[in-house]
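Annual report, structural modelling task.

Input specification for the zinc ion complex:
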Amino acid sequence: MWVNHLFLNKIFPQINLKTKDVSGWSGKGMHTTTFAEMYDLPFGGKIIDTPGIRELGLVDISKQELSHYFPEMRILMNDCQFNNCMHTEEPNCAVKNAVNTNKVSAERYISYRNILDSIDEKKY
Ligand SMILES: [Zn+2]
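The model returned the following structure:
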């Protein structure tokens, strides 16, 4: 999944304040100007933004947990028909209903789905 700083800053505005350069992480002795940056997420876990290989790593977040980190979705989850709802294809999903009626922004929902797709279920 390709991401850039604008995308990261949009979904996690807080990390703007905590950006740090992880020097030496992106490969010792490589003659390149690319470098990896690691962001501490406000809810724990880390994002590693690696311009060189165009890959985003999300660590320590399961698909089931992800919507907990979107406050406007979290408050709706109890209204979903299934308590393990991931707000994708399930019927009677309160989150999708809220997106359809503009109570949750479609942009945020798309961010949610993009991140969801990037999480490797097999790890959990
Ligand atoms: Zn749902």
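Residues 16-34 have pLDDT under 50 and may be disordered.
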